[in-house]
């Protein structure tokens, strides 16, 4: 059963691949405008006798801003055993070498170049988490740093604006909270933004949010490939704000579904001989009791939503049938159409392969997935 609660928002651009090489590279996601990189095994101990070389390339006429999230390399004289070195190959300017006894003088390095080479190497050592670094271009200042002001509507509400680099999703750290209730301010902010569907991990982007007084308990939720944890203690929460699209005066509205259609439906006859029709119309997220289900054994089954007119669709929430009828969809593809005849598969921001959305793990919880970039269509399958 797939719910039809759809959300509205703004679009993003597709990234270009970055360059990295070596046997010491950890989590790496490099785009022209921002990125995140780490040494192998981070935040565990980095391995002996490894190296990695990252080539960061921004657009012409921009400069790169590098934020040192963590530089924990075992100390040695002149950082000879394990080191981090940064260089501008165009001007010959070098930064470093860095290790635990020779750390960067500031957490943010502002360069004068759109190209920077990052070189990490290790010899024999016993300890050290390794390297975590993110970057953005001068077009997007504020990576990992916030500009805050007090909201004039409420003196108790603190507003923030931060540019989140691409690649933060798989960095070690928990996400606390859910989109409807807000996120605890102890969470990893940019990872929470991915969870909430405000940005795509493969693109990064600007995030605007407010810090407000919240509840003392957050239930876990699964959204955009991230599972938040059940948390308590802090009453402060983060509320993410989206820029509303010109197609609608409001964000986060549930779009009305004019009609449901499906490839097939299950006509069930239970043990008492009673009929139960699992028709497409029962696919609405708020429907109680049994939902829609395809005919048993059907291949390539689909559910179709008719929105009545072309709309800007930025997300979908799915849920299983019910506790009594323990059925749910674990993964699915999405395609869209303006006329109901010509269909376009959703491929996400990379544009290479049809995106597989992670669905539900049980029949009770709701799972949210954002479309970044969004879909503009009348029909969604």
General description of the model:
The protein has one helix spanning 189-195, and strands spanning 5-7, 19-21, 25-30, 34-39, 50-57, 64-72, 82-88, 93-98, 108-110, 115-122, 130-137, 147-150, 158-164, 177-178, 182-184, 205-213, 217-218, 222-223, 226-227, 231-232, 236-241, 259-262, 266-269, 275-278, 303-319, 331-332, 335-337, 344-345, 357-358, 366-380. With 381 residues, the chain is mainly beta. It folds into three domains: 20-139, Spermadhesin, CUB domain (Jelly Rolls); 159-241, LCCL-like domain (Ferric Hydroxamate Uptake Protein, Chain A, domain 1, Beta Complex); 259-380, Sandwich (Jelly Rolls). Strands 1, 18, 19, 22, 25, 27, 28 and 30 form an eight-stranded mixed sheet that branches. The chain has a six-stranded antiparallel sheet with strand order 12-13-16-21-15-14, with helices on one face. A five-stranded antiparallel sheet has the order 2-5-10-7-8, with no helix packed on it. A hairpin with a 7-residue loop joins strand 12 (147-150) and strand 13 (158-164). The longest helix has 7 residues, at 189-195.
Question: What is the assigned CATH homologous superfamily of the largest domain?
Answer: Galactose-binding domain-like
Fraction of residues in H or I helices: under 10%
- Number of domain units: 3
CATH class of the largest domain, please? Mainly Beta
Q: Mean of residue pLDDT?
A: 83
CA distance, first residue to last residue: 12 Å
How much of the sequence lies in strands comes to: 35-45%
Give a short account of the largest sheet: 8 strands, mixed
Shape: elongated
Q: Specify the structural class.
A: mainly beta
* CATH architecture tag of the largest domain: Sandwich
Low-confidence stretches: 1-17, 143-155, 244-251
What is the CATH topology descriptor of the largest domain?
Answer: Jelly Rolls
The number of E-state strands comes to 30
Q: Mind telling me the C-alpha Rg?
A: 24 Å
Q: How many individual helices?
A: 1
Pfam families: CUB (PF00431), F5_F8_type_C (PF00754), LCCL (PF03815)
Protein name: DCBD1 protein
GO molecular function: signaling receptor activity
Subcellular location: Membrane
